């Protein structure tokens, strides 16, 4: 990672600002120069280094400028604007009016918001259950001498690269209460299946199952990479010490894989809390049925509610408040996860 | 990356707005430079009607030398979002399609130019269109839309299923009682066949039955909801009872999982109420073309159906208001209406130009859609129709699914709708 290079170098040089007289940087730079390898005169080396630093830095900024500008204009600035609009009432054709915390007060008393938030949290929790599953798959695919691993890897990864819209269309048919394959299979073993995505009691589980199906491949690939990064000698040493397969898994594999597990967990939480397209289409909100799915209230996610309020009900200020709350929630959950990682993640 | 969807969604409106603004300035400048002739843009959303619209535009160009009309297609899914953004930034098409549920929003916030209805500058003559269609585009004393087409509602039925059940096909004389009775007789649960489909559809189902029962959805001054009126509830109850009491319709869950049209086309539902534009769907399906036909709706206390239709409107900030009005006058005229009818996609709104539409599908009795006009009632709207129509869907779905008593749901809906209507009155922008 390139950022490591600058991070390591920065304390030594004091990162002099451009255009500053070169003399002022000397005391801070001395420490770095003293430890520099090679037979060059420390002062000359220092000068050369600084020259490179200036130039490198400007090149660096120039090269990231296009991406950085795009990020600022299309992502960061809208975030600031969204925050501003969450304190306003925004008519359908512009014309904002500052209304302070009114949107947030409405939100706290809006049962639809709390229901949507609850749905989203349940979905996220259920999708997290896919990580152990991905772990099992990764371990299985990592077994030496197993045949057809390439095929399995591809099969499990396929849902990840499939458009959520296509996934939703297919799963709607699989889940169809009258003619779906799932219910036909269940009836073969004597179980009378339900209307999975229009029954309020099953809708969240049915959608989360698709969520797991769509993410398990991605997590599996990451975990597989993590597994393959564990040196084989550790296992040899462990078996010499008399550790069985199970002991090896819990005492070696799991701790050494914990950084990857942490990464997949953080990413899954961030993505799941923002789930939109899959659920929107599964509930049939894009069809003439619209919001009349009897399980709509139990399926609707926070981003769906934001979309509904902002772009259909013409309450954009309120929509902005909804996403701002979601934004803060995601930040908080991510921060908590980073806090907790100290307890269970082992690096190296 | 999916991770970015939230930010993207939040940003899309803003970035779209700035983008549109930039391009809009250019087109405005060039249009002004070209002087009297000018270039008009015409915004539409239906790809099936595109050929007819293009043909009409060419015809207009032919009679107006120096004028070009560009027909801009935006798919239905994004049409309204895009149009709203374009209106905000001053770059909407000069002339564009409007529908009932969205009309109030645009008229109320001054996005449309009024159209003269009499005198030498008249753009639309009121007498040339069905009155309830014309009045749909009337807002606070002024006319803003020139009716383009209309859709009414009628009862489709599967002749084969009627024969098998020994039921006489509907002939326009049916009362609600006969509709219910026959739907029950047509239901054959062993074969998975239901007499009728009762989805939570407004224009096709409950708006019609509310009118037939003598109820109302919204007050004349558009300030109060009519959902607590016993007659309104009676109109709603027809459908809830067809599902739960008479068990003559698939449940709401079944109708959510499979679109009612598909159930009808696959012979698993014997009747359904559908709008005139659905005729094309049934005509295209060769498997059922000869098996189905259409009849007038059953009557309750009254004989009634809902009429809705699109209109051509002029954008308030168009650089060519006169030319745009002239184009709208042409589009609502006899010639353009006949072009539209000949392409067979939608029923032209102008009286006396509808014959070609009914004749395009000879085996269907499409005349019933034209006859429905005389008992038609206007589609209910207000300044922010979308907001309460979503409440409508959510509350009525609870009653339809049986999770909530119909009367309770109707009262909750009244409260929610009244609150939204009060907000409309307050903002008034």
UniProtKB/TrEMBL annotation, chain A:
Q: Which PROSITE patterns match?
A: ABC_TM1
| Statement: the UniProt record of this protein carries the keyword Hydrolase | no
Q: Where in the cell is it found?
A: Cell membrane
- Organism this protein belongs to: Streptomyces cacaoi
Q: What is its main location?
A: membrane
Regarding protein family, the annotation reads:
Belongs to the binding-protein-dependent transport system permease family.
Any one cellular component term from GO for this entry? plasma membrane
Domain called ABC transmembrane type-1: residue spans:
116-337
* Pfam families from the UniProt entry: BPD_transp_1
Q: Know the name of this protein? A: Sugar ABC transporter permease
Classification via CDD domains: TM_PBP2
* GO BP terms: transmembrane transport
Q: How does the record classify its membrane topology?
A: Multi-pass membrane protein
Matches recorded under PANTHER family = ABC TRANSPORTER PERMEASE PROTEIN, INNER MEMBRANE ABC TRANSPORTER PERMEASE PROTEIN YCJO
Matches recorded under InterPro entries: ABC_transporter_permease (IPR051393), MetI-like (IPR000515), MetI-like_sf (IPR035906)
* Family annotation (SUPFAM superfamilies): MalF N-terminal region-like, MetI-like
Q: Where is this region: Disordered?
A: 1-35
Is this entry keyworded Transit peptide?
no
Transmembrane residues, as ranges?
58-77, 121-143, 155-174, 205-227, 248-270, 317-336
Q: Which of UniProt's keywords are assigned here?
A: Cell membrane, Membrane, Transmembrane, Transmembrane helix, Transport
From TrEMBL, chain B:
Q: Where is the signal peptide?
A: 1-22
Task: One Pfam family, please name it.
Answer: SBP_bac_1
- InterPro entries (alphabetical): Bact_solute-bd_prot1, SBP
Localization of this protein: Cell envelope
User: How is this protein annotated for GO cellular component?
Assistant: cell envelope
Keywords annotated in UniProt: Signal, Transport
**Similarity field:** Belongs to the bacterial solute-binding protein 1 family.
PANTHER family referenced in this protein's UniProt entry, alphabetically: ARABINOSE-BINDING PROTEIN-RELATED, SN-GLYCEROL-3-PHOSPHATE-BINDING PERIPLASMIC PROTEIN UGPB
Output this protein's name: Sugar ABC transporter substrate-binding protein
The organism of origin for this protein: Streptomyces cacaoi
- Lineage of source species: Bacteria, Bacillati, Actinomycetota, Actinomycetes, Kitasatosporales
């Amino acid at each position: 990672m390139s950022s490591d290079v600058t991070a390591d170098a920065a304390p030594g040089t004091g990162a002099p600002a451009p255009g500053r007289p070169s003399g002022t940087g000397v005391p801070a730079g001395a420490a770095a120069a003293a430890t520099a390898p090679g037979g060059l005169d420390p002062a000359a080396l220092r000068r050369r280094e600084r020259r490179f630093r200036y130039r490198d830095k400007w090149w660096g900024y120039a090269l990231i400028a296009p991406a950085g500008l795009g990020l600022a204009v299309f992502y960061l600035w809208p975030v600031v604007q969204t925050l501003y609009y969450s304190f306003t009432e925004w008519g359908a054709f512009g014309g904002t009016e500052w209304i302070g915390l009114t949107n947030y007060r409405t939100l706290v008393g809006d049962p639809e918001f709390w229901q949507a938030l609850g749905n989203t949290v349940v979905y996220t929790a259920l999708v997290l259950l896919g990580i152990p599953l991905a772990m099992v798959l990764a371990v299985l695919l990592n077994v030496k001498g197993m045949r057809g691993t390439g095929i399995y890897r591809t099969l499990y990864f396929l849902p990840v690269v499939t458009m959520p819209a296509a996934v939703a269309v297919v799963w709607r048919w699989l889940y169809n209460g009258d003619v779906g394959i799932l219910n036909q299979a269940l009836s073969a073993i004597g179980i009378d299946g339900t209307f999975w995505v229009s029954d309020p009691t099953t809708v969240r589980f049915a959608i989360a199952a698709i969520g797991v199906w769509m993410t398990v491949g991605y997590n599996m690939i990451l975990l597989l990479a993590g597994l393959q990064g564990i040196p084989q000698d550790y296992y040899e040493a462990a078996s010499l010490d008399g550790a069985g397969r199970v002991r090896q898994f819990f005492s070696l594999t799991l701790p050494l894989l914990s950084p990857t597990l942490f990464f997949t967990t953080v990413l899954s939480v961030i993505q799941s809390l923002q789930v939109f397209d899959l659920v929107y289409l599964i509930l049939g909100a894009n069809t003439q049925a619209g919001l009349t799915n009897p399980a709509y209230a139990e399926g609707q996610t926070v981003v769906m509610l934001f979309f509904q309020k902002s772009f259909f009900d013409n309450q954009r200020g309120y929509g902005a408040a909804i996403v701002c709350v979601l934004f803060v929630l995601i930040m908080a959950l991510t921060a908590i996860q980073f806090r907790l990682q100290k307890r269970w993640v082992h690096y190296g | 990356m999916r991770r970015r969807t939230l930010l993207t969604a939040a940003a899309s409106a803003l970035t779209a707005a700035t983008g549109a603004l930039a391009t809009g300035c250019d087109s405005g400048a060039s249009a002004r430079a070209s002087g009297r002739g000018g270039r008009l843009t015409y915004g539409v959303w239906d790809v099936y009607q595109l050929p007819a619209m293009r043909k009409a535009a060419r015809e207009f160009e032919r009679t107006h030398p120096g004028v070009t009309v560009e027909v801009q297609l935006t798919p239905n899914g994004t049409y309204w979002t895009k149009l709203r953004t374009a209106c905000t930034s001053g770059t909407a098409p000069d002339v564009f399609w409007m529908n009932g549920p969205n009309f109030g929003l645009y008229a109320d916030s001054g996005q449309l130019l009024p159209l003269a209805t009499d005198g030498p500058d008249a753009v639309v003559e009121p007498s040339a269109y069905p009155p309830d269609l014309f009045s749909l585009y009337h807002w606070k004393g002024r006319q803003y839309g020139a009716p383009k087409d209309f859709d009414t509602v009628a009862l489709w039925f599967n002749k084969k299923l009627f024969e098998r059940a020994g039921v006489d096909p509907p002939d326009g004389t049916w009362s609600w009682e006969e509709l219910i009775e026959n739907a029950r007789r047509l239901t054959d649960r062993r074969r998975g066949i239901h007499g009728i489909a009762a989805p939570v559809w407004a224009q096709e189902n409950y708006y019609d039955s509310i009118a037939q029962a003598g109820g109302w959805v919204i007050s004349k001054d558009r300030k109060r909801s009519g959902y607590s009126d016993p007659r309104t509830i009676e109109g709603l109850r027809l459908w809830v009872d067809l599902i739960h009491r008479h068990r003559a319709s698939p449940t709401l869950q079944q109708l959510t999982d499979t679109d009612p049209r598909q159930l009808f086309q696959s012979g698993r539902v014997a009747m359904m109420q559908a709008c005139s534009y659905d005729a094309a769907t049934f005509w295209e399906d060769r498997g059922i073309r000869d098996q189905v036909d259409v009849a007038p709706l059953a009557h309750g206390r009254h004989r009634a159906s809902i009429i809705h239709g699109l209109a051509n409107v002029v954008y308030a900030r168009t650089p060519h208001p006169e030319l745009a009005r002239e184009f709208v006058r042409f589009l609502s005229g006899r010639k353009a209406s006949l072009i539209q009818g000949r392409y067979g996609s939608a029923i032209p709104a102008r009286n006396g130009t509808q014959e070609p539409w009914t004749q395009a599908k000879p085996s269907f009795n499409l005349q019933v859609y034209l006859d429905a006009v005389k008992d038609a009632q206007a589609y209910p709207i207000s300044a922010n129709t979308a907001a309460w129509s979503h409440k409508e869907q959510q509350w009525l779905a609870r009653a339809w699914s049986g999770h909530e008593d119909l009367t309770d749901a109707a009262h909750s809906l009244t409260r929610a709708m009244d609150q939204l209507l009060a907000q409309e009155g307050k903002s008034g922008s």
